[in-house]
Amino acid sequence: MAISERSRAFLDSVLNPGSVAVLGASDNPSRIGGRPLSYILEAGFQGPVYPVNPNRPTVQGLTAYPSIDAVPGPVDFVIVALPAAQVIEAVEACAAKGVKACVIFSSGFAEMGEAGAAAQGQLGEIARRTGMRLLGPNCLGVFNAANGLFATFTTTLDRGIPKPGHIGMVSQSGAYGSHLYYLCRLKGLGVRSWITTGNECDVSVAEGLLALAEDDHTETIIAYAEGVTDGPLLMQAFETARRNGKPVAFMKVGRSAVGAEAASSHTAALAGADRVYDTVFRQFGVHRARTTEELIDIAYATTKKVYPAGHSLGLVTISGGAGVLMADAASDQGFEVPPLPEPAQAKLKALLPYASPRNPVDITAQAFNQMDLVSRNMEIMLGEGGYDAVLAFFTSVAGSTLAEPLRAAMREGIRGFEDRLIALSIIAPEAVVKAYESDGMLVFEDPTRALVALRALCRFGESFARRDERPAVEPAAGRLPAEALDERRSKAILEAAGLPVLADRLAADAEAAVAAAGALGYPVVLKIVSPDILHKTEVGGIRVGLGDAEAVRRGFAEILESVRAKRPEARIEGVMVVPMAGGGVETILGVQRDPVFGPVVLFGLGGIFTEVLEDVSLRVAPFGREEALRMIHEIRGVKLLQGARGAPPADIGALADALVALGRFAAAHAGDLETCELNPLLVRPEGQGCVALDALLVGRSPAAE
Amino acid sequence: MAISERSRAFLDSVLNPGSVAVLGASDNPSRIGGRPLSYILEAGFQGPVYPVNPNRPTVQGLTAYPSIDAVPGPVDFVIVALPAAQVIEAVEACAAKGVKACVIFSSGFAEMGEAGAAAQGQLGEIARRTGMRLLGPNCLGVFNAANGLFATFTTTLDRGIPKPGHIGMVSQSGAYGSHLYYLCRLKGLGVRSWITTGNECDVSVAEGLLALAEDDHTETIIAYAEGVTDGPLLMQAFETARRNGKPVAFMKVGRSAVGAEAASSHTAALAGADRVYDTVFRQFGVHRARTTEELIDIAYATTKKVYPAGHSLGLVTISGGAGVLMADAASDQGFEVPPLPEPAQAKLKALLPYASPRNPVDITAQAFNQMDLVSRNMEIMLGEGGYDAVLAFFTSVAGSTLAEPLRAAMREGIRGFEDRLIALSIIAPEAVVKAYESDGMLVFEDPTRALVALRALCRFGESFARRDERPAVEPAAGRLPAEALDERRSKAILEAAGLPVLADRLAADAEAAVAAAGALGYPVVLKIVSPDILHKTEVGGIRVGLGDAEAVRRGFAEILESVRAKRPEARIEGVMVVPMAGGGVETILGVQRDPVFGPVVLFGLGGIFTEVLEDVSLRVAPFGREEALRMIHEIRGVKLLQGARGAPPADIGALADALVALGRFAAAHAGDLETCELNPLLVRPEGQGCVALDALLVGRSPAAE
Asked: Which domain of life is it from (chains A, B) (predicted)?
């Protein structure tokens, strides 16, 4: 899964070009063609900078050239700040000049109707034909704070040229991307690379993200998108970031119906089911942010670069009430809040008899009169409690008489525990906050926000620590037939793919059915087999619970009679004989195609659970066994598998194996599988496996691709 | 539901006393007995203030008295800042002096084990015996910013004496209450009354809340509690606040298992099921805050005093991306985001051809170059869109060149729409924020936080507008038997209470059963009737689907044989004959006792829905029909009642009537009903009503009360 040549070229040419030209360069630094030039000059970009403007001899003090081909030296990167009508010709000229990448600010493309979309299609075609990479059109640009390349006209930079930091940001929306950058700046977070992709005629958010995941200087990635077109590339980017230990926090909007509609009127991006995005983020360890604050809080928390692989939390408070509130919020976030070991509790009790030493540890406002209480307490919680993260609530820490002694006490208490997340919930002036931060503590005002961010960091750590990588699946050698397959053929194909299906025999006449039943064991079920009949119940094509030879003979005759009456034209291949199966939990396994991410495996309990309660979990295929187990435990109805209402626990391990096999099958047939359903798949008690009682496969015609 | 004499006395004496004494008054203003005196003097409390200290002639410049009875004039209110051991004697002396209320700062009571709890019990007994009201012990005190009564030792007031405002606050936790107060202060919100209740030997959070709900000067109420002991009083307080149009935002902690445990170790408050608290808040229109920020945001938003009874939302943005994000967040909050009417969209399109005029309305950054766009857009959205609330996202509004023109444009656009909620999501300096606020706009940085607060205000408005008040239910004249009642007796009692139950006949012998079956119509069900048998299935006491006289005779004999074999000692009253009922959705209705709030009605779909998925909704009894309908629509499985999977819609109206009847019955028997269950209650297709097929009532012995 190495990065492609094209992506590498994008990364090098867009973020680290040797030379830059500006088409439509303006002398006025507040105009769209003047602003980037002015920023680049102010930031001191090291390579040659060429303004291109046929109407002026100089622009902002530099020699101007009438066209890109008139520029004397080679040009790596071009900023296109021209009216839409001039863009295609200009971009062709750039390609002819050997330019490696352009960013196109111009609007008036796909967002403006069909003619614009056609022009944008031409831009994409130029990029594919020439290998020159294109960012935009209709985007706010890109910057690299490390080398002074500020190829953007966002007014947000008017408040000062950014200093490089650990964050890389990629956003479809320019205005929202600027807003995010500005929030980072206010929070003191350095953004190194900033990429807005706009209409994405060539470079997408996924590719921008992949570039940042590969970039050695980027440590944290923040992304915003309304829709993604290249799901596989996005997953590659996520997996690359995970392997490189880089947290990704993603704001994917259009979650709601009204939001999705607003998104589609705003850009022309493909929708894709929001549930599938949710699944992909979860599956690849990406944090899906729901609010902008949360996104920035998490970016802030990553400055510590500590990602515990566990999620046990210690809570310290000077207010019992705040302790309870934090315990609730920690529980909401899925933290474990285990009590301190008894000996540690005894030590705390000895220090302060009226402390609550369990966890939350309430050291009361007495802590402020007795600062060694704070340091000893932190030491005990981190050392003996062994918590992955500790959050301490001290309410207001204003005034140096409190702030400095508390800081010294905290510093002493956390020394030697640099591998833990230490956060404070305090209200304090900025200088105090900075001082605490410089000692390795994260500072939040609101404790709930602190816990959301800390939990995200622990989830990153858990994801980084995972060894359960996606299996490599080769495309299948043969194609599935491009049609709906009957139960027997569907089961045979799935059985060959390693899925457990109920044994069956095909009987051409009643006596063959009796013989088959005798071999399989009574009671049995008879089902009509016909390529023309998919819904067997509707035509009276099923008889269940047949307990002896006579019942089988009668059932066989009844089925044929009914089917011939109701569907006289149907081709009948015979009647299937299968054993009656029962004693287990009925589940449903399925595969659906997502337009963005490809085959997605679905799991649920079937019936009303799936149809009415929509209690299903999804995973993009393929996936490993640990992922399958997480998938099973995600549904609300999992209790039924764990042995609710007096039933024995079901064989969840066998179910996980079946899900993995189905994921591999779906991935191998990504191109030619339309849908697939095993319904029901009966999960038997532990140790007894699971088995599909019925199955339906639908192949996909090559024309549909 | 008028306020009681005792509560009135509390309100008058605690918040508006004519004179104040301080027991344990100290010269040192940083000590617990010095701090309130110093605050009161600084704030200029108008009545006489008497320090009591046997060891000093003066305290903080005032004449000190050796004991409370040595004080020359009458004393309304006393601050007790004494060691725990001296409290009881002092409080007795206060009562003898005719003091109306005391606040007891002292710790060392119920929070410190059994001896402390006993002493606290004595304090409660003094309050009940003498009528003198007691706040605390172990509390941080109380203040009324309007009259200078600062009977508290919270250090938070060191940062300045509060100015009165519209907020009343009541908190069990002193430290967290101080923290909340401080956050209000930072946000510029005035807190008029602040009450901390600590261990609650007499005055509880509920009573404090009731006082604030009655207080003419309090407009918004914020509360914090870990546990409530007097549920009915709390509900009275909520209902009073609702009737008086006062929003209540409540932080009830101990939601999670670990939080509840921390709460019980912190105070000795009764737990009460958290789901029931949730229910009570929802039922009485109280906003349950999950985070401190949310609590303060909502308090802030109430400064506008606009509570729309609807919840349609208009969204304005200069960034399409932010528009989508807000649409998602609005959807999460349950806002409707309907599109602007077509003519209004056409007007906007004429103003700015590349605007997205639907809703969210994207007026793009062009708005900043063309401010009339902002005012015309607001005018159109409020006038023609008719939205209850509008949120506008302008990202950063720094610098007066932007802030002032935008403010003027907004002011013009919203003129005449003072009944709507207008909020901005902007990043701006405090002075800019204040200026916008002074023009009637709410200002938030984060749009999601704005939407949470706006939605809370709309919910308040919806609750204020409700006419569906709780029915008044008199206690029932007769007591239920203090035992588990068999199905026939249970059904008879419930039928008398107006609940639909399946007709039945009691048959003493087989021929009587046949006659009954003939009268009721075949097929029928037979069930054993015995006061000693509650679980009829276990003893073979039920036969279903009996289609003719012969089957009834055989069934009768089989039941008697089986029951006599399995439970030879059981008294048999006969066999019930009931018609076979089917064709509808099976539900379960129940009543459970909550230790805090009394009888709670439960509704669900029964079976796995109730047991495995816990898909039930609750309401405290009694309640009206609208509330019953809300209760039905709260469960996830409601789709099954609305006609999922091809079934006809069920008679939800009849179901609501049954729930109301059950609520009235439960309320009338609040003292003598232990539990009750109608399981199943079959809800038939629309217009055909519902009927309980089985029922079980358990009466409560008077000793258990």
From this structure: Bacteria
Asked if B269 and B171 count as a contact pair (C-beta separation under 8 A), the reply is no
A193-203 average pLDDT score: 95
Give the contacts of B13 (CB within 8 A, at least 6 positions apart): B76, B77, B100, B101, B133
Q: How many residues does chain A have?
A: 705
Q: Which contiguous run of DSSP H or E holds residue B680?
A: strand B673-683
pLDDT for the residue A270 = 43
- Which two three-digit tokens encode residue A494? 């799935």
Give chain B's domains with CATH numbers. Answer: 5-302 (3.40.50.720), 307-465 (3.40.50.261), 503-579 (3.30.1490.20), 585-704 (3.30.470.20)
Nearest one of B237, B145, B137, B255 to B196, comparing CA atoms: B137
Q: Which residues of B touch A330 (CB under 8 A)?
A: 256, 258
Closest among A98, A92, A181 to A140, alpha carbons compared = A181
Q: What crossing angle do the helices spanning A447-465 and B292-301 adopt, rounded to 10°?
A: 140
Per-residue pLDDT of A633-666, as tens digits, reads: 999 899 999 987 778 999 999 999 999 999 999 9
CA distance A491 to chain B (A): 27
Chain A touched by B613 (CB under 8 Å): yes
Answer for the pair B356, A262: CB distance below 8 angstroms, yes or no.
Answer: yes
SS3 A342: helix
Q: Does A267 touch chain B (CB under 8 A)?
A: yes
Residue A268 clears pLDDT 50, i.e. is over it: no
How many other CB atoms sit within 10 Å of the CB of residue A522? 15
Q: Would an 8 Å CB–CB cutoff place A279 in contact with chain B?
A: no
What residues are paired with B616 via a beta bridge? B604
- Beta carbons of B256 and A447 less than 8 Å apart: no
Q: Is B399 on the interface with A (CB under 8 A)?
A: no
Q: Does B159 touch chain A (CB under 8 A)?
A: yes
Which tokens in the block code for residue B280? 């009570």
User: B358, A265: Cβ pair inside 8 Å?
Assistant: yes
B331/A257 Cβ within 8 A: yes
β-pairing verdict for A248-252 and A287-288: parallel
**Is the CB of residue B244 less than 8 Å away from at least one CB of chain A?**
no
Secondary structure of residue B168 in the 3-state scheme: strand
d(CA B205, CA B277): 14
Residue type, B563: V
CA B407 to chain centre: 38
CB < 8 Å from A in window 160-179 of B? 171-173, 175-179
A340 touches chain B (CB under 8 A): no
Q: Of B111, B118, B168, B175, which is closest to residue B141 (Cα–Cα)?
A: B175
Q: Which residues of A touch B226 (CB under 8 A)?
A: 321, 324
Of the candidates B262, B321, B396, which has its C-beta nearest A327's C-beta?
A: B262
Q: Could you give the ipTM of this predicted complex?
A: 0.92
- Judged by CB atoms closer than 8 Å, whether chains meet at A322 and B254 is answered as no
Find tokens 């046997």 and name the residue.
B54
Mean pLDDT for B500-528 is 93
Contact A461, A309 (CB under 8 A): yes
Contact B116, B110 (CB under 8 A): yes
Q: Are A678 and A494 within 8 A, CB to CB? A: yes
CA distance B4 to B206: 13
How far is B310 from A594, CA to CA, in rounded Å? 37
Interface of A with B in 21-40 (CB under 8 A): none
B586-616 pLDDT, tens digit per residue, is 999 999 999 899 999 999 997 777 777 788 9
What's the Cα-to-Cα distance from B357 to each of A144, B270, B373, B377, rounded to whole Å? 35, 54, 12, 9
